[in-house]
Specification:
It comes from Maribacter cobaltidurans. The chain is of the alpha+beta class and 188 residues long. Helices cover 38% and strands 29% of the residues. A hairpin with a 3-residue loop joins strand 7 and strand 8. It contains six helices and eight strands. It has a single domain, classed as 3-Layer(aba) Sandwich (Aminopeptidase), CATH 3.40.630.30.
Length: 188
């Protein structure tokens, strides 16, 4: 049986939902740093150093987690395979559960790109990697993402001072994906 890294390597890079998806590489460090340090985008994420060397070191550590099937950082590009749009991540892998996050998209991305990136990434996790449960944390002050997260009726699992925590299973995801693909008029 193939491990999750072998499965990912057999799928990515690929085209889907009018975009191109691949695993993040060292060459993406500058793009990642530009998103994570964009004042508007960084408002609801954990602070990130502006030091390029620190970002490269973090990516090197990430690549080790990727090799072990514990973390998959996916970049969404325009169909040309060159223009970077945004990022999604499958991480905190435990058995048949993963966490979805690092959901960050460029201001130049189209209005549906972030949602399509989420649908692709979660579909990959559920349908190709065999996960059964997705966890997600959303900052309470990030009202736009919080509204979106609640729109597909995930199970609320708790909160702390800053975050709401949710879980959704594959059946919930399929219904959510079907609704948005139909809304965006995108073929699965």
């Amino acid at each position: 049986m193939k491990n999750r890294k072998e499965i990912i390597d057999g799928i990515l890079p690929t085209e889907a939902y009018n975009s191109y998806f691949r695993l993040v590489e060292m060459e993406d460090a500058e793009f990642i740093l530009s998103l994570r340090n964009n004042e508007k985008l960084a408002k609801h994420i954990n602070p990130t150093s502006t030091d390029m060397e620190e970002q490269i070191n973090w990516l090197k550590e990430y690549k080790n987690r990727e090799k072990n099937g514990k973390d998959f950082y996916i970049i969404n590009l325009k169909k040309d395979g060159k223009t970077r749009l945004g990022l999604n991540r499958i991480y905190n892998v435990e058995g048949d559960t993963f966490e979805f996050g690092s959901w960050l998209y460029s201001p130049e991305a189209g209005p549906n790109d972030a949602v399509l990136g989420e649908l692709f990434t979660k579909g990959l996790a559920f349908e190709e990697l065999g996960f059964n449960l997705c966890k997600m944390e959303t900052k309470k002050k990030n009202t736009r993402v919080l509204w979106y997260a609640k729109s597909y009726k995930p199970k609320f699992t708790g909160e702390d001072e800053f975050n709401h925590y949710f879980e959704s299973d594959y059946e919930n995801f399929k219904a959510h994906r079907e609704k948005y693909l139909k809304l965006f008029n995108v073929k699965p």
